[in-house]
Amino acid sequence: MSAWTLKFDSAGLFDFLHWRRPAAFKVARPAAVSREVSERRSEAMRGLFPKLASWYEQRMHLADMREVDRYLSQSTDLVDLERRIHEIERRDSASRWF
Q: Model pTM greater than 0.85?
């Protein structure tokens, strides 16, 4: 029965892990970014977050409206619909205080 060994010298695993790419495949590092570009980038990021917050708030509002619409559509008659509307109004007015 022959035993095998893992060689870490010559053409073994060590050389494979430390293999270098040819010069043609090297990734070029970006040039230093000017201060003006950096300031414009930071200004754009500061403008992004309020837009993102308003988009998220709008999505949450639309989801709440869909839930209310679904709840109201389950009413069986006009009296039940009015009761549900008053219940939603009471819930919304109570939640504004907390």
A: no
